[in-house]
Design a protein that fits this description.
4 strands, alpha+beta, 145 residues, elongated, two-stranded antiparallel sheet
Length: 145
Amino acid sequence: MDLMTALKVSSSGMSAQRTWMNILAENLANVNTTRTQDGKPYRRKTVIFETVPYGSSFDDLLASFEDNSVSEVQVSDIVEDGRDFKEVFDPGHPDANEKGIVLYPNISIVEEMVNMLTATRSYEANASVIKNVKAMAMKTLELGR
């Protein structure tokens, strides 16, 4: 794998992790949102990643299918979590139903924070790869002197 390919693959990983962190931040910001524009509580979102063969041309893509070589990561979709909303008894809440139950988003702060740490570590790992590729490129240039 050449240096530019390593940079491209790592940058695709950083971009995907940045998208995931943005979604996680959105989830955390809406942890107490009991009514959205559609009248329902906010529903937790998550990111679906997929790998795609690396290649800048059609020939490169065909070659990568044949030898199972390098792949990039990309966000294929952002989907809503299908888990049930949390039910809390709070008869004084403006969104409470006739039984005094308020539906809160299906978000676990602990789960979101663990996911945020995972995304951060992945982002940092890709940044480290880019830093090392840059150092290798600089060493290669020094060899030519």
